[in-house]
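Researcher: Quick sanity check before group meeting.
Model: Go ahead. Protein one:
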Amino acid sequence: MSKLVINARGTAHRAAAAAPDVPPAPRWARLAAKAAVLTTVPSGLWRIAFGFGVPVGFSGATLAGYAEHQPGWGTLYCVALSALAESLAFLTLGLVRPWGLVAPRWIPLLGGRRVRPLAAIVPALLGSVILTSLGTSALLGGWARNLAEPDSPHGLAGVVMTLAYLPLVAWGPLLGAVTLDYARRTMWRHR
């Protein structure tokens, strides 16, 4: 059985009976989780526009290569990649919400069962390390090298692309911070 709980905003929700001993996520962690989800939105929108053939500044052989498949499988690839990134980022919310402690009932075979903390912590920390490494690499010259390619977007198009992808640099650290808080609340709590 679950009991009715009133959260800080005064909204009632059902608390999972299987995880009553886990304290709620602090406000900073809830905000960081929401921010992590939002980091993928600008690049996803840019990528989808690109996938549908909106001119984003590529030129030469690169433009010709992409144009062969847009619309087509290139469009499908851009939409699918954007949806995948947003879905993975959305999972960060599970680290601060009740469904990160007890699987929602509608999930076949797992619904209503308590989430084992390491089943969430290990992939989240691994993702955080990978994303932070990629973001650091981009900041330390990888992005500049890509933009230096002759067929890459330049001028305003390069600025727009950079601004669309820049928030991704924060995804890894945000995910890492939220994951460490989840670990603290689920594994290292006082018993």
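Researcher: Fine. The other one?
Model: Protein two, sequence then structure:
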Amino acid sequence: MTAKGTFETADWNAQPPYDERDGVSLGHVTMTKTFHGDLTATSVVTLTVASTEVAESRSYVAMERIEGTLHGLAGSFVVQHDAVSDRGEQSLRVRVVPDSGTGELRGLRGEMEILIASDGSHSYVFDYRI
């Protein structure tokens, strides 16, 4: 199955870096998301971010608990993010943590693509199976 829609982020809360030296900074950020479309849900995201002196070279890993409905099935699940920007060349992988689904989403597996338009708006394409 494939779910598509948009989402907004809010409540970006960056903590002071917990390690900062030699031009590399490590820190934590939390934020919330609201999903629309085939996935109608809210989430809380906890990120660990690494920034370097090169503005286009950075990375983050994150865990995100999503709760709501997916094509009408109610429950929650967790996704894991792995993102790298290597001098502007970006890669991002967002996949469901196995066996993290609850309610009608128990057994959910899948991977989500996040798209950012030139105007800054966000959308997703979520390929999944239950």
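Researcher: One line on it for the slide.
Model: The chain has a mean pLDDT of 96.
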